[in-house]
Amino acid sequence: MITHTVDTAQEMAAFLRARRERLDPRDLGLPSRRQARRTPGLRREEVAELAGISVDYIVRLEQGRGLRPSADVVEALARALRLAPVERAYLYDLAQQRPRDAGTPATAAAPPLARLVADLSPLPVMLMNHRYDILAWNREMTRLLLDFDTLPPSQRNSMWLCLLHPEIREFYVDRERVVREGIAHLRAAWAAHPEDRALTGLIAEFITRDEDFARLWAEREIEVNGRGRKVMRHPDVGAIAVNFEVLMPLQDPDQRLLIFRAADDESQSALDRLCAR
């Protein structure tokens, strides 16, 4: 359930339970027990022992009683639960123990970055903020995806387009992977920006309107993926495979440059045909 702001205590409780239950005690060298385990993963007592924290404190955290663990406790839990770096950062955000940028979320492109988006032609490029709002784009990106000028501002969001736009919804060959990666990023952004009502409103809309999003959101995967590959079905030129890179400017850390490059000669030829129109 998404409210107007992040309920960090309840999300931390669910996240800690999920990460505890996915661990195999044998992988951590814990002794086997004669009594059968009623739930998968580690017991709370085992997490408490690994982290050097009392069992009662673990219980209260997993019950969402509003505790705010210290940075030392967060680090101990991250080690005990074998969290990946991005999951560790997520837990720090939920505990409000990671330093935050005092600035407000970007709602417009910084002028130097808008010029850079244009200068990077003929590569398809767009500029987004942490919630995937599209702030600037070049001509090549409109040829590849769609003309963003024709959309109302509320729909200029790459996740909204992927989930709800009738054409872009079927655009990606491996749609579930693209959606899964987008959700993993949004969950990390959601914890890092707990007062961003626009972001929580978007997530609530996606949960309500898209069954795949609701299912994948409940899995609580966390990932910030700045590099990868996507294959697209373009209605005019057929399949296009692109490698993507996401860059974060030091001067404007809430803005992100998404740059596409053709992954093979056939895809480059298709992009050339698109942009020559």
From TrEMBL:
Gene3D superfamilies: 3.30.450.180, lambda repressor-like DNA-binding domains. CDD domains: HTH_XRE. SMART domains: HTH_XRE. It comes from the Bacteria. Residues 34-88 form the HTH cro/C1-type domain. This is Helix-turn-helix transcriptional regulator. The lineage of its organism: Bacteria, Bacillati, Actinomycetota, Actinomycetes, Streptosporangiales.
